[in-house]
Design a protein that fits this description.
The protein is mostly beta strands and 143 residues long. The chain is built from 1 helix and 12 strands; from the N terminus they run E-E-E-E-E-E-E-E-E-E-E-E-H. It is 6% helix and 43% strand. The protein starts with 11 loop residues before the first strand and ends with a helix.
């Protein structure tokens, strides 16, 4: 059994999705709006073909958006930064998601060749909701 993830940063948390072992035909994993996911899911996206081990994804925070990020295949590391506390988590369990709440800087690195990342978002894409510059993010925390 895997060790539970302890979250040290603000605006984050852990979610464990329900799954059904349907051996020998695999597992069925379920995420439901306002049940297992505590918001109305308005956007779903995934990231794959991460062939470069040195790739860095994310490198931003959001002003209002809330998301849950999952590694549905393979593994990667996610670095979380709330402006005061920093934490790095290895993502390698397809049933465990990490909450990326508002004003939480995040970066993803160390992707396995078979890595597939799934994200459930509380709103539609809006470029105005992004902090893409770390200094601007830190200023927003201190205001």
């Amino acid at each position: 059994m895997k060790k539970d993830i302890e979250i040290l940063v603000k605006n984050s948390g852990v979610i464990k999705l329900q799954f059904f072992n349907d051996e020998p035909d695999g597992n069925l994993v379920i995420a439901e709006s306002m049940k297992s996911v505590p918001f109305d899911i308005k956007r779903v996206y995934f990231i794959n073909n991460l062939h470069r081990f040195r790739s860095v994804r994310g490198k931003h925070a959001h002003k209002k958006l809330e998301q849950y990020i999952f590694c549905v295949n393979g593994s990667f590391k996610i670095k979380l930064d709330d402006g005061t506390n920093k934490q790095e988590i290895v993502m390698n369990d397809p049933y465990i998601g990490i909450r990326l709440g508002p004003k939480l800087w995040h970066e993803m690195t160390s992707f396995s060749k078979d890595c597939v990342i799934l994200v459930l978002a509380s709103d539609y894409f809006d470029e105005a909701d992004y902090f893409r510059n770390y200094e601007d993010f830190i200023k927003s925390i201190n205001n």
